[in-house]
Design goal:
Structural class: alpha+beta
CATH class: Alpha Beta
Distance between the termini: 14 Å
Helix content: 25-40%
Order of helices and strands: EHEEHHEEEH
Radius of gyration: 16 Å
CATH superfamily: PAS domain
Largest sheet: 6 strands, antiparallel
CATH architecture: 2-Layer Sandwich
CATH topology: Beta-Lactamase
Length: 183
């Protein structure tokens, strides 16, 4: 049985993320830029991130012309949430189908704007909210001119220990006009 999932999405300034680990990752990323467009992924390791966060990280190989995104790494926590390991696959392969389109949009932002972005998503079905997430995306550039990797740090509402994100999500989505982002 297939259930239609609608996704509402809005972008906020990365520094506005309510997720503390996002703030630390963004600061570390900026410190590693050292006057460059972005650090090279070669300057990083997944082990540079807190171990509890690694299962909720994906790393993409990106290209522009044509725009292409392939997951180089897909964390085990994401595998549990999305029902599969999408390493070596594209965002369009990740269910629901509308998620892939939205994720490609986030990757396109990295390639085109060449700066970090933060997306807030709400997944709903006819019977109500299914899940909500905040995703910090960081660009990486091996040649100093083009973005060829992107790191995505996901924080799902129910994973925030000791702090409910309900009021954050309610405030963010109250500011936007509801848009049908597909089924």
């Amino acid at each position: 049985m297939t259930y239609a999932v609608k996704i509402r999405s809005v972008y906020i300034e990365p520094i506005e993320s309510p997720v503390e680990v996002h703030t630390h990752a963004l600061t570390d990323w900026k410190n590693r830029c050292i006057g460059r467009l972005a650090p090279s992924w070669k300057d990083y390791s997944l082990m540079d991130f807190p171990p509890p966060e690694i299962p909720f990280i994906s790393l993409t190989d990106l290209a522009n012309a044509p725009l292409r995104s392939i997951y180089r790494f897909w964390g085990t926590g994401l595998t549990g949430i999305f029902g599969g390991d999408y390493t070596g696959k594209t965002p369009a392969d990740v269910p629901p189908a509308s998620l892939g389109i939205s994720a490609t949009g986030g990757c396109a932002r990295l390639v085109n704007s060449r700066i970090p972005n933060c997306e807030v998503k709400e997944f709903t079905r006819k019977n109500g909210v299914l899940a909500r997430a905040v995703i910090l995306r960081l660009p990486f550039s091996d040649d100093g001119e083009t973005v060829n990797h992107g790191l995505n740090m996901y924080r799902f509402e129910y994973l925030e220990s000791g702090k409910l994100l309900d009021s954050f999500f309610d405030e963010i989505f109250a500011k936007i006009k509801p848009v049908d982002c597909g089924t």
